[in-house]
Amino acid sequence: MKITLLTVGKTEDTYLKDGIDKYTKRLKHYIKLDIIDLSELKNTKALTTDQQKTKEAELILKKLANTDHVILLDEKGMEFTSQKFANFLDKKAIGSVQNLVFIVGGPYGFDQSVYDRANDKLCLSRMTFSHQMVRLFFIEQLYRAYTILKGEPYHHE
To answer: Does the keyword Kinase apply (predicted)?
Structure first.
């Protein structure tokens, strides 16, 4: 199974980039991970929030294949412990999901068209984090999940 993290905008802060790089390198031992950063919209001051979400949705939907299993990182999504997230990923792999695509939206969230395309929603926390930080938190949780599945000593309960 391949996993793709699709994000709106680039990670700008060096400390976040370093953390993402650290866990991305570690994940190479377990899975094929692609990170796709879509360009942030330009000249958004003249656009309403809904117009921005619609334009971001167009960019997101263009990157998805019909066979992709799409999971939005969204505050209204499923909440898991790290162990349950690992089990969720394992079930997707066993269930013959070929490409699991996790999406981090822009600062205003997702347009309804992206919600309509999604197969699932995942909530990392009930707290709100910047969409920059969510990337690092997600990649670390992905790494943690695979160490759990392999019985390696990274995760402690």
So the answer is: no
Q: Strands 69-78 and 99-104, how do they pair?
A: parallel
- Residue numbers in the known binding site for S-adenosyl-L-methionine are 73, 105, 124-129
Question: In this structure, are residues 135 and 16 in contact, taking their beta carbons and an 8 Å threshold?
Answer: yes
* Annotation: binding site: 73, 105, 124-129
Please state the pTM of the whole predicted model.
Answer: 0.95
Count the Cβ atoms, other than its own, within 10 Å of residue 70.
22
Fold of 2-40+49-149: Alpha/beta knot (3.40.1280)
Listed by start position, the domains of the chain span 2-40+49-149
pLDDT digits (tens, 9 = 90+) for 31-79: 999 999 998 888 888 889 999 999 999 999 999 999 999 999 999 999 9
